[in-house]
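Posting for a labmate who doesn't have an account.
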Amino acid sequence: MKNNKKFLTHAELFGQRLRIERKKANISQRELAKKCGFKSGASISNIEKGKAPINIQSLVIIADTMNTDLHWLITGKLFPKQSYYNAINRLAYYITWEISRSLDERDKIDFELNELLEKQKKGEPAEQELIDLLRSGRAQIQDRLSKVAQDQHWLKEAILSTKERDNDKYSNSNDL
């Protein structure tokens, strides 16, 4: 007898959790897409089906919009409230690492590029193709740094939003 069980990918599992939380929050795919800056509800549909990736900015907006635990949304595991902060800290660590790595790569390219350009100025042979390749690589790194800077901005917003929401919860509980 054949085993026809289908094992779900991480993206599909994430999509299922997203669909559950979206329906609990009574938000349509179109509404959620609009809040995340997507063009249509089809984007959310594709994420829920595990067919499309999601960036950090959208992930944080989704968790915040639906007031759901970011850690559970990502992993499917329930932890105490502290897990949201741990997930944010892990994202912050990754962003810091990505910035550091990108800056190191850019510095190496700048060093090589400057050496080649100095050779050219002195009239020595320097491969124009290599110069163009280094410039292209540097532009790609700059694009990556811009995207990471956007993620860093959204992460800061998520931290502030969470702190404000928690402060509101604690101040309201004292009024009881």
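Reply:
Got it, the structure tokens are right above this. Residues 135 and 155 are 30 Å apart (CA to CA).
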